[in-house]
């Protein structure tokens, strides 16, 4: 078999390592064969390609070193950083919130995870850490042309030496420039050289190629230059309407904390691509980030109508039903995920909770047993915490205490477990231990209002009114609409007025 045809066949079958080995042998015989050089470059890129639309995660540096300040106090429903200002959302007392102030999502996705080791953010910044599941969509015919000295690679060294390559020579050749750009961006992870090549290629095509404008916007977005990225994406949309461009422009506005502008962009995209699932998903995520669950679930239902196997939509609808006191409906959606082949600890944990609140007690323990058998280190604490909640619900406080302590032993920073342990100790009359647990929970999760309220109620009960007054104000800062906290504050203010 011809080795060139063999390499192309291996690339088409997604056997990228064998394809790279075959191309390396061919380049050893003829180092200036541009066709084989491009094929090897594309195979190396596909090995490490990451769909950065679904993998991007805003890190701590981007959050705290943001120069795009719009307004200190955003209007209600116009900011993702202050979702509590939105109207018509779910009640914080029923649906838990994350540390960023957003309601808990049905699935892990961009914006729901912080930048910690082990997330996709590091996979994007570090080459050779991830693979793609996308099928290859581009095939180029083999044309034998002689390259330049920059195509020569040292044995055992890098395939392409970016310091020696003359980007200007390749910018005028689209067949070489586009694969080279993707290689530099995804394999070498060198945004500076990729941006330089994109600028030269855009000038070479006289600003008529929308694809290069999108790549320029991607580089500007990665460098934190949001306004420049916005300009490039809008210019690309004027030349060609593409789903990816609409999504990336929407992500720019989300990073700028302008969710209403992002919604307008996605709705404009739906005019060109009606019922497009990716655009509907983006709109549903934005509404959920704004704490407008009614509109979010509406769009998720449209997604399920178009794609009945969309895991994110099914999970989010199921979670919405669970937190709106409809565990039977939630159970139907989670069973659908189980029938689709999803088999993990989180799903069985949710199934167990739905079975318990739907009074199907015979299935509850078996679901949690499956969850514990499938749980990873990050999930064990949450599962033991939920088992503790069920034990409290059936009145077995001893089992509840054991489960909550197991949750703390698995995760020493599990604030809800500390809070519930404090409540159990308070029921036993151990005031000092209960106060210690409430203080630990408040220090670990200052965004939760329950530890503050419980601590304030305990202080009021033992007569420490000053401490109760100080702590209840922190509870109202975390959740201003909590009626018991408002009543307790009113009682304390009346007491101080009488004194």
From TrEMBL:
Biased composition, class Polar residues, residue ranges: 92-102, 127-141
Gene Ontology CC entries for this record: BBSome; ciliary basal body; non-motile cilium
Gene Ontology biological-process annotations: non-motile cilium assembly
Protein name, as recorded: Tetratricopeptide repeat protein 8
Chain residue ranges for the region called Disordered: 73-141
Transmembrane spans: none
Gene3D superfamilies assigned to the protein according to its UniProt record, in alphabetical order: Tetratricopeptide repeat domain
Keywords: TPR repeat
Repeat region (TPR), residues: 345-378, 415-448
Lipid biosynthesis found in the keyword field: no
Record has Transmembrane as a keyword: no
